[in-house]
Write a structure and sequence with these properties.
Blueprint: H1 6-15, H2 20-50, H3 56-72
Length: 75
């Protein structure tokens, strides 16, 4: 299914006050995902600097984050 765009969330917020908690939950989820992405990048950089090479689990996390980020993008 197509993810809900920011524009659609704004419309739902304006036209359906009873759905505002759901809109807030979607926005919160997106912000949490952005923070997780930032933490991934910080961890990945530290791993490469201190240990060297790549950590498979971090690359899997990156793939999941990329998929989620792309789903949430306005299109």
């Amino acid at each position: 299914f197509r993810p809900v765009t920011q524009g659609e969330l704004r419309r739902i917020w304006a036209e359906h006050p009873d759905m505002r908690r759901l809109v807030l939950e979607v926005e919160r989820y997106r912000r949490v995902m952005a923070e997780v992405d930032h933490l991934y990048k910080t961890t990945h950089d530290a791993w490469r600097r201190n240990v060297g090479g790549n950590l498979v689990a971090l690359h899997r996390l990156q793939a999941l984050m990329t998929d989620e980020r792309n789903r949430g993008a306005d299109g």
